[in-house]
Write the structure tokens for this entry.
Amino acid sequence: MGESLRASFSSPESAGSWMASDEPDHDVVVTTRIRFARNLDGFSFRSRLTDERSKELEAHLRERLIGLELASDQAYLSLPDLDELDRELLFERHLISLELARGSGPRGVFFSRSRHVSVMVNEEDHLRLQVFGPGQNLAGLLDQMREFDQKLAGRVRYAHHPRFGYLTSCPTNVGTGVRLSVMLHLPALVYSKEIEKVFNAAAKMKLAVRGFYGEGTSYLGDFFQVSNQVTLGRGVDKLHQDVSKVVPKLVDHEREVRRTILKENGKGLEDRIFRAFGVLSYARRINSQEALELISQVRLGVSLGILKGLELKTVNELLVMSQPAHIQALEKRDLKEEERDVARARYIRQRLGRPGAE
Amino acid sequence: MGESLRASFSSPESAGSWMASDEPDHDVVVTTRIRFARNLDGFSFRSRLTDERSKELEAHLRERLIGLELASDQAYLSLPDLDELDRELLFERHLISLELARGSGPRGVFFSRSRHVSVMVNEEDHLRLQVFGPGQNLAGLLDQMREFDQKLAGRVRYAHHPRFGYLTSCPTNVGTGVRLSVMLHLPALVYSKEIEKVFNAAAKMKLAVRGFYGEGTSYLGDFFQVSNQVTLGRGVDKLHQDVSKVVPKLVDHEREVRRTILKENGKGLEDRIFRAFGVLSYARRINSQEALELISQVRLGVSLGILKGLELKTVNELLVMSQPAHIQALEKRDLKEEERDVARARYIRQRLGRPGAE
């Protein structure tokens, strides 16, 4: 498997396309992601499931997922069969969670990249269905997800309680089991320290604000995922309404602060953006965190029209491809951290048109 | 005066030429400077001289210096007649000291740029004769200086004691009144923290190590002036020997550490150099200290052949022209600090061939 997975993930063409670059609000909105948490009747929750039963559950779900015949590019991968690099690639591509990538025991992922769908098996819940796409597309993806969920419900028996709704491993997911997330690029709110207010306001609305890689990951490069916090007691439509209402407000807020900074300290902002571009264009080694932070500045520069001649699609591609596993996929070999930093710097330089002496 | 002084100092052509770019050891040795401290018989030392007598002394010396007919481009400038920008220009060009530039009372400077000669009047001593040039040229400049000193001695009466030699305001200068300085670029010794050892070794040999602008200025951009500390009890030839002996050792030491760093952490060094180049190429505002520090890295990169297609002469020019007063001379107007930082960044960008959108 490894070879084809790596080959397909090392295509920069595909890397940039799952993020917004021509959708409305692409200056702030990056991606939308929806996930449904589901469990099966007749199997204990993951925390109480023996290894034996985990295996049986995985085999059961694997067969039914494959049987869906969702797309010609669909694949089911069993995590223990994959080497570390492949697991990290799937994680960096947001197809699986950190927990599934670095966990243990029988677990797998079913996905179709053309359909932007992935299903984690034996993560925190038996099933985590996920669909994602560029820009703000909660309504469209929700329709897709509901259809997919119903299709699967026709083949497995979901654990469902007439009063509580879908039963999940963690109480916060009980009910609809739905999480609606929109990833936003909020560099101006971070720079102006207004982001703290956003966190507080979101908490009051029972919304969560998470980092680039979702749950349990820190804020990197000014990217934030805004999502509903709990699902119990709220229908999907109410959750949809809540998140849909807050996203445009955040977009407006971010834009307003960008305008204010441009007006009050335009030279300073320009300087930060161009310095980031200069370092990315010339550095000879760069770690993934610094790369993400600098690319964030460059993304802002492109959005504001300060950096000309650079496409947002290229910036999105850099965001994806400069991640540790992707750099190794590009280089077609395992690299130590220091070698990765050198390869990353070279890759970024080349994409920005400054190949330099090598 | 202001107009022509500014015009002549804003020519980048001339700016780079007083530093080494094709002399031997130009990778480490930047400039040589020799100064003679002299006082006149019949006038008290500066600290005890009344304003009235200071004026008389200045008039006396002015007439005699002009009468030397040293060169067709010679000029005598009275400091109180100059505005702040012109005084700072003379200081940044190392023609006058910080003390003379920012001091008060009757004082002046006589200089010929073509002859690389300047004479400060009413600085710490009545006369400070100075000659400078690119590369290590102690012997050549010493001959020039002796000739110049004798010529002047034929027109004024130096304060000289048969046993102590030339009398000076500060006891460390009594005797020959001579200071021999060589400016060195020692980025590797700074980076490896070996520079502390150099300071200690120099102190033991009664040599001083000073910063870019000489006495009372801090270390900037890894440039150091190595010079004799005291002159009493040592003849000029002995001083010449002392400084001449230590300079090649420092050059070798710096080169050795450069080789070691290249071998043990070549990628790290390359990265530092290219990042400095990247920031200089793209920054939209930059203060003079950061500019000097980054230009120092770039100078090292050119010396080591890491940065190709950039001439040392251009780097030297950047060192001179990015100083605060020079930037204002280039822009032909007084600038506030923030405006200078913007103008400096634009100038550096243009000289490095990255004009960008403006």
